Amino acid sequence: MNGTSVARAKRRPARERPAFGARLTAPLLLGSLLNPLNTTMISTGLVAIGHDFGVGASDTAWLVSVLYLASAVAQPVLGKLADSLGPRRVFLAGLVLVVASGLVGALAPGFGWLLASRALLGIGTSAAYPAAMAALRDESTRLGTPTPRTVLGRLSFAALGSAAIGPTLGGLLVATAGWRAVFAVNVPVAVIAYATALRWIPKDMPCEKTAAGRKGTLDPLGIVLFTGALSCLVVFLLDLRHPMWPLLAPVVVLSALLTRWQLRHPHPFIDLRMLGTHPALARTYLRHGLSYLVVYCVMYGFTQWLEEERGYSSLHTGLVMLPMSLAALACSLIGARTKGIRAPLTVAAVLLAAGSGLLLLTTDATPLAVLLLAGACFGIPQGLMGTGNQAAVQQFAPAEAIGSAAGLQRTAQYIGAITASSLIGLAYGQRADDGGLHLMAAVGAVLALALTVLTVTDRALRRGPAE
Fold first, then answer.
1. Dist. CA 78–CA 351, nearest whole Å
2. Angle between the 186-200 and 22-32 helix axes, to the nearest 10 degrees?
3. Nearest one of 350, 384, 418, 414 to 129, comparing CA atoms
4. What's 267's DSSP letter?
5. Three-class secondary structure assignment of 344-394
6. Between 349 and which of 52, 102, 330, 451 could a Cys-Cys bridge form, CB atoms 3.0 to 4.6 Å apart?
7. DSSP for 253-286, written as a single string
8. How far apart are CA 208 and CA 308, in angstroms?
9. Cβ contacts of residue 176 below 8 Å, gap of 6+?
10. Which of 445, 443, 423 is nearest to 432 (CA)?
11. What tens digit of pLDDT does each residue of 237-286 get?
């Protein structure tokens, strides 16, 4: 054995775990699927919940929006905590909140309890994705090698796959066990994720040994200002039928204060200088938010139209959405194996425009085959843009801030989703009909065309993600 080999042997722990092995990634994948799964799984249960509690579509839309509001605020906050305090601690704490939220929702005696459950669920599930990205960063630091794209592809597949099968799974649960099962199913999944994470995810590195630890404080004032500005904006977006214009004033004031503070703080919560020096990352957030605005209009608006205007049951609606789910699953795998970024994102944008065009022509007499085709037109982009934008964040964000950068990516996604749910309420009111569907499709077509232009003209996307 030569001197180099001896030195390496001395540095190697007695029982070295496999690099990026299944034991590390399994709990990360299981935890990361909970948030996207819950964003879509409830879509086929909204009508049943509305009937049980005597509320309309504009009210049940709050069950969607409140999770997005909680997630949009919590994702970057928990990402910052994962960077600073350690991903394992944040990951486990989030799973505890998921268990509590599942129990509250399953036993909820009134509609207000469901809203509280969804808010708690949004916070709890928001910990997993940024914590997973931070945990993979720590593993990369330990090994001195970048995280393999196959591992990132699995993480993306878990998120996209769970979101894609959400409507079908939700329809099955509602049809067989009632809508409360949509909440209760989170409990066993979170318990399993907690047990495996406690056993298999390595203990957090001491803060002074990590890049995040060297960066310093958590910037609590920045977090408070960000939360206040985003909360006011989201509440304004939640009800465009009756816009609360006075809320825009605190949005402007708090945003100005946040900007001033972040530019002065040595270790800001949101590194605006980083976004200024990494404009491709800022464009990634914009592209991601626009994409999901269009997708979630279909995810929720189309499913409600199928049940109320077309007369399908929750189970049948889930089955109609199955091609969309399968297309998203397949294309998330394809996207994970694609080295380039711009080509799959361009295809996704074009298909979003085509799918929106199909829905513009859809009525209650449209053949089932056309409805299935329309769903597939939205499923393929869901798979491609998820993996493509994740690869873009990995490429354009600084390694030491990957947790908070990943959280901001999800925040952009949820702002798009919140705007989509508000558009649904504006278009449908108390009942989903053809006119409302066509309004959403028209907005989707315009946004998809804008997204196509934004993607094609982005020169930074010509380079593939770093290997």
1. 33
2. 150
3. 414
4. S
5. HHHHHHHHHHHHHHHHHCCCCCCCHHHHHHHHHHHHHHHHHHHHHHHHHHH
6. 451
7. HHHHHHHHHHHH-SS-SS-HHHHHH-HHHHHHHH
8. 57
9. none
10. 423
11. 777 777 889 999 999 999 999 999 988 888 787 878 878 888 889 999 99
Q: 200, 203, 149: which is closest to 22 by C-alpha?
A: 200
CB 455 within 8 A of CB 139: no
**pLDDT value of position 273:** 80
| 467 has a pLDDT exceeding 60 | no
Task: Give burial (CB, 10 Å; 0-12/13-18/19+) of 292.
Answer: buried
Q: Are 294 and 444 in contact (CB under 8 A)?
A: yes
> Which residues, in sequence order, are CB contacts of 258 under 8 Å at separation 6+?
222, 225, 226, 229, 270
Short-list 413, 431, 420, 414, CA closest to 298 = 420
**Residue with tokens 């399993």, as numbered in its chain:** 192
Q: Are 91 and 197 in contact (CB under 8 A)?
A: yes
The pTM (predicted TM-score) of the whole model is: 0.74
Question: Measured on CA atoms in the order 147, 150, 155, 160, is the torsion positive or negative?
Answer: positive
Residues 6+ apart with CB under 8 A from 49: 55, 60, 63, 111, 114, 179
Say which residue the tokens 């993607």 belong to.
Answer: 455
Q: Which tokens sit at 170?
A: 């939700």
Question: What is the crossing angle of helices 57-85 and 402-428, to 10°?
Answer: 180
Q: Which two tokens stand for residue 320?
A: 């109609």
Band of residue 13 on the pLDDT scale cut at 50, 70, 90: very low
Cβ–Cβ under 8 Å, residues 440 and 301: yes
Residues 6+ away with beta carbon under 8 Å from 231: 69, 73
129 and 410 Cβ atoms separated by less than 8 Å: yes
Q: Element (H or E) spanning 44, and its range?
A: none
